[in-house]
Structures are given as C-alpha cells and as structure tokens.
Design brief:
Low-confidence stretches of chain B: none
Largest sheet of chain B: none
Order of helices and strands of chain A: HEHEEEHEHEHEHHEHEHEHHEH
Radius of gyration of chain A: 20 Å
Order of helices and strands of chain B: HHHHHHHHHHHHHH
Distance between the termini of chain B: 30 Å
Number of helices of chain B: 14
Helix content of chain B: over 70%
Structural class of chain B: mainly alpha
Number of strands of chain B: 0
Mean pLDDT of chain B: 84
Largest sheet of chain A: 4 strands, parallel
Helix content of chain A: 25-40%
Number of helices of chain A: 12
Strand content of chain A: 5-15%
Strand content of chain B: under 5%
Oligomer: heterodimer
C-alpha cells in the first residue's frame, strides 16, 4: 500500500505537466462513429481497426488487443473494471488490484523496452513516458496509450471510456462511468449538506504535500462543499502544493485526512509535531486515516474511499 | 631559515564582529517576526520579551499564534543559526587543514555518505529519527573510509585525502542512485531531504544538534591559530613546533562530526561552507583567527536569512532551503569576488 501511495506521489509531478488537457472528443472510430454517441451504438464501436485520441495524439489499434500490458495501477484497475481483464497479460509491479491481475516485475517508473517487448504485447498502457518508451514501442509497431494521471473526475471518465474503446468494451465502460456518476451524486446528496463548510487538510506526506481542488480527489471534496486549506497555496492549479507548517497550524482545519497513515503518521505523531497541539483537529482527535491506494487512484474503486471519507467527516461534524 | 610570516591581522576588528552580530540578530528577529502567517509585530515582540527568563510582559497573541512563534519559528531560527554556523566554520576549517580553497565538509564524502544513509532509511520505511541516525552514520562512515583510503596512499598528503574523498563520494552516490532506481517510490522523500529542510524542526532536534555544535565550533575556534600556522606548509608548520598530524585529525574530526550531525537533521544545504568563509576572507583577512569567529556569526545569519526566504517567498508553500542558498549564494559570491578583484 505504501508503495502505491508513493507511486501516486511521484506521478503528481508528471500529471501537473499534462493536467490541462481534458479533450472530451477523445475517440474516433473508423469510419465515422464517435464515442460521444449513446451506448446503444456500442456494437458498432467494437469494430477494429479503431483510432483512439489521447492527450498526446491519435493511436491506431488495428485489431482487438489480446495481449495488453498496463504499467499504471489505475489503468490496471480500469481495464479490469471495463471487462478487459482477460486481455491483460502483464501489469507493473505497483499494480495491486484486482488480485487476479498478472503482476510482473515490469516497472512503470523505469520501464525497460526489451522487458516489455518480451511479453509480445499488442497494446501498452502507461501513465508517463520517462525514457522514450512510446517511441520505442511505436518503432516496432506496438500501439501505446499514454494516459496521464487524472487531474479531475472527468479525466477518470475519459480514461475509462478510452480504455473501453481501445479494448472493445466501450459499452461496459460507459456503464461504469454512469454508475460512478450516479454514486458520486448519491454521496453528495446524502452527505453534502451535513459536511458543507467543514475545512479540511489532506496530508499526502510528512513534508506537507497536500492536494487542492485542482486534483481528482480534491474535486470530490469540493463537490461535498468541503473547504480545502490547500487551495490558497495552489493559485496556479498545480493540484499538489506543498504547504508551510505554520500555514497549516494557523489555518486550523476542522478535519485532518492522513493519506500517509500507511507511512506511520497518526493522531499520535501529529500530537508530537511542534505546535500542532494548538490545532483543534489534533486536540479533539478529528483525524481520519485514509487508504493511500484508494485515495490516489482515479478508478471506480476510489468511490469506496469517497463514501467512507464523506461519512467519516459527517460523523465527526455530527459529534461536534 | 627565515621564520615564515603568519597572515595578519591576527584578530577580527571590533566593527566586523559587531556587523556580524548585527546581521545575525537582524536575520533572527526577521525570522521570528515574519513568515507565511503574519503575526502582529507589537504583540510578537512583547511575547518574545516575555519568553526571556525573569521577564514578564503581557501580550495578546492567541494560543495558535503563540504555538507558531515558540514551537515552529523559534526552533527554526535557532536551528538555522546552529546549522549555518557549523557549515560555515566547517568549511573554513577544511579549507585551512587542506590548504584548498574549494574544500568543505562535503568534499570528504559527508554529503554523499549522508545521502546514502538517508536513502537507505527512506527505502526501509524508517521514521524520521532513524533516517537522521542513518544519515549521520553514512556521513561518518564515508569520512572514515575516505580517511583510511587517503592514509593508505604512499605519501599521505592532503591531496591524497581529497582524491579519496572524491572517489568515496562517487561510490556512495552511485550506490544511492542504484537504490533509488530499485525503489523509485521513495524518490520524492529523498529529493526533499537532499535539498534541505528545516520544515519540521522542533526543539527536540535543536537539543540533539546543540552539543555537537558547541563542541565542534569550540574545538575549531581553539585551533584557529594552528590553522594559520598550517597555511605556511606542513614542513614549516612542523618547524614552528606544530603537531601537524594531530591538529589536522582533530580539526577534520570536529568539522566532520558537526557537519554530519547538521546534515542529518537539516538535509543537504550546499554552498554555505564555501561562500561564507570566502566572503569573510575576501572582505577582511586571510587569517583564520579572523575567518573562524566571523564565519560563525555570518554563517548563522546567512542561513537564518536563507530559511526566511525559503518559507516566505512562495508562501504558503515552501522552497527547499538548499535551493535558496545556492540561488542567492553563488551570484553573491561572484559579486564579492569581482569587487574585491577590482580593488587589488
């Protein structure tokens, strides 16, 4: 779990570079159907070859992929969620869900072209391209989907639909997105009015990296009406600002969310930090430990985290 | 044989000392009064006066503001002073014993060793206390290996020692890079550490560093005349009755131990050990009897000021202090070098 959290942490910087791109017309099939059509046209969409639009350009997939490699834990979850799990032959060492995913020692951070090719993939999904992996795979005619980490909830929907279209499961993908939308609406309906106006600090690590509303999870906090203290530190919309400690202490958030709980941080360690005992959240114990994996991946599973955290905050607000 | 002449003057001028003290005091006061959160100046000054033992002054800071002042800002200012003084004096001491203007504690592998130790710490998921200890052991280990390697080379000169330091640094850095490649997920923690942080410093860390600072700075201060004698060369220094080996070992040990302790708490903060002593040297005297005491004052003031910039310029975010010291220090040093060069 800790490894996953850190994977996410590293990806922040990468996503920041590409965060602005949320192209909604992302898929064009040959010859003329588009993904924006309702799901009744799904059958037509599963025909190959298909051209998939990604933030970094169009990718042509000639036939239904049967040997997919995912080098992104979120993409792994999303591939399985849209029903393409059987087509996945290998996933990176950070992918931890679902359990049946074929975990290998392939790395998404320091990907090795030869190691990837040894699996003879017909589609590779990565979140960032540290060393010319896209060019290398293209050179041997392996299509690559470079899908950056989600900076907004809509980015997650786009990724899920993209993966659905690329693997012949657009119908399922659309259904997954719809159920995510429904669940988020339901959580906001049920809990939003109870927690609105509550101030929060979401801690990613003990050097006070946090996330603002310009992030996947932060956008959800905003939908609930929570006030995120990190927003003031993120005027450029980077999404993951590092806060000054006295700023946090002075902001005195109502609730503290510890995504670094798996890293050893807890209410007890917060109490030992210089000056933190003056914060009401620390003295009253309004500290919620959150799962680093669930709170860092833009997948259907993140809704488990969304519901848990919303209900936990509501319970704390109710308790005063 | 002519008796070699030691650099003069032999003690810092009163004005230089007063200036150094004023710079430090100014930086410290600014460091206490300014920050990402603005505290009311009048009340903050009164609260600071209130903190002096035996003095009672009323102030109307809230509990949160008091915590920020006493528990967050004050230890940072004290820690910045200690680390700055250690790095600056350590740099001066190394330059003296090795007669090498580019020498500083990092040269003998302190930085690379500490970095390796910290990386191992982050890699095994150690808590910050253990990371500190491992960084300290790494720094110390690297210097011991450097020393043994340097001694094992035929003529046992200062050059051999420095070359050994370069080799040990390269080796430790390679090992660190390898570990990072194997455990990419720890990259950012290490990155934060490598560029230095006084972010989470509290009185506990100050207490841990304090004895090292006092002992090391005291030892180097006592040996300041010996450093002047060394500047005339090993043989001449022996001729003047100095136990060169003993002085060198003592000074290197003191500077290394203190630097390792400082680095393990604050991360790697570069340039201080080069810039501060050289600036002092260029502006006052080449005598270590002047450079050592002034480096203590100016080093402390410089780092407190750099830390103030680090935590205010991008508020409410923070910059790594090592970036500030490099960004400010390098051009500043060039200006000093050029202006002094023109005068002569």
């Amino acid at each position: 779990m800790r490894r996953m959290y850190l994977l996410f942490a590293l990806l922040l910087a990468v996503s920041a570079c590409t965060a602005a791109t949320t192209d909604t017309t992302l898929v064009t099939t040959t010859p003329e159907t588009t993904v924006d059509e309702p799901s009744s046209t799904t059958e037509a969409l599963t025909s190959f070859p298909i051209t998939i639009s990604t933030p970094s350009g169009d990718v042509e997939i000639k036939a239904m992929p049967e040997a997919i490699i995912s080098l992104s834990p979120s993409a792994t979850e999303n591939l399985f969620a849209v029903g393409a799990g059987d087509q996945v032959i290998a996933v990176d060492d950070q992918s931890s869900y679902p359990e049946e995913s074929p975990v290998t020692d392939l790395s998404g951070f320091t990907p090795n072209l030869e190691a990837i090719l040894a699996f003879e993939p017909d589609l590779v999904v990565i979140t960032f391209d540290p060393g010319g992996i896209v060019d290398g795979l293209n050179a041997v005619d392996v299509p690559v989907l470079l899908l950056p980490s989600a900076a907004a909830i809509s980015d997650a929907y786009v990724e899920i639909e993209t993966l659905g279209a690329a693997t012949g499961h657009l119908g399922e993908a659309t259904a997954v997105v719809e159920s995510m939308q429904t669940e988020i609406d339901a959580i906001v309906d049920e809990v939003g009015s109870q927690v609105e106006g509550t101030t929060i600090y979401h801690e990613i690590d003990n050097t006070f990296y946090s996330l603002s509303s310009h992030s996947y999870v932060g956008e959800f906090y905003g939908l609930l009406g929570l006030v995120n203290i990190a927003d003031e530190a993120d005027p450029d919309g980077f999404g993951y600002p590092q806060l000054a400690v006295e700023y946090i202490v002075d902001a005195n958030p109502d609730v503290i969310l510890l995504a670094d709980a798996g890293f050893g941080e807890s209410l007890e360690t917060l109490q030992q930090r210089p000056g933190w005992n003056s914060m009401t959240a620390v003295s009253s114990g309004a500290v919620i430990e959150v799962d680093a994996d669930l709170s860092s991946r833009w997948t259907p599973r993140s809704l488990i985290f969304f519901r848990d955290v919303a209900e936990s905050i509501a319970a704390m607000v109710a308790a005063g | 044989m002519n008796r070699p002449k030691l650099p003069q003057p032999a003690r810092p001028g009163i004005w230089a000392v007063l200036t150094g003290f004023a710079v430090w005091l100014l930086a410290a006061m600014a460091g206490l009064l300014l920050g990402p959160i603005s505290l009311p100046v009048g009340d903050t000054v009164r609260a600071l006066a209130d903190a002096i033992p035996g003095v009672t002054v009323d102030h109307s800071l809230t509990a949160t503001q008091t915590s920020i002042l006493y528990e967050i800002r004050a230890p940072r200012v004290v820690m910045g002073s200690l680390v700055g003084a250690i790095l600056a004096v350590g740099g001066a001491a190394y330059q003296g014993v090795f007669r090498n203007p580019l020498a500083d504690p990092y040269l003998l592998g302190v930085a690379a060793g500490a970095g390796l130790g910290a990386t191992v710490g982050f890699g095994i998921g150690a808590n910050s206390g253990l990371v500190t200890l491992l960084a300290f052991l790494g720094a110390l280990g690297a210097v011991i290996v450097t020393y043994l390697l340097g001694r094992s080379v035929g003529n046992r000169t200062a050059t051999a020692l420095i070359l050994a330091g370069v080799a040990v640094s390269a080796f430790a850095t390679a090992l660190q890079t390898y570990l990072l490649q194997r455990n990419v997920e720890t990259l950012r923690s290490v990155y934060t550490w490598v560029f230095g942080r006084l972010t989470t410093v509290g009185w506990g860390e100050v207490g841990r560093l304090f004895p090292y600072a006092v002992v090391a700075i005291g030892l180097i201060y006592v040996q300041r005349r010996a450093l002047d004698v060394l500047s005339v060369g090993d043989e001449e220094a022996e001729g003047l009755g100095l136990n060169v080996k003993r002085v060198r070992l003592l000074v290197v040990l003191a500077a290394t131990l203190a630097t390792a302790a400082a680095v393990s708490v604050s991360g790697l903060i570069g340039f201080v050990g080069i810039i501060v002593p050289h600036t002092v040297r260029l502006m006052t005297s080449w005598s270590y009897r002047v450079i050592v005491p002034l480096s203590i004052l100016f080093g402390a003031g410089f780092l407190v000021a750099a830390d103030l910039i680090a935590r205010t310029v991008a508020a409410p975010s923070e910059l790594p202090i090592g970036i500030v010291t490099a960004f400010l220090g390098a051009p500043f040093f060039l200006v000093v070098m050029r202006s002094v060069g023109r005068q002569t």
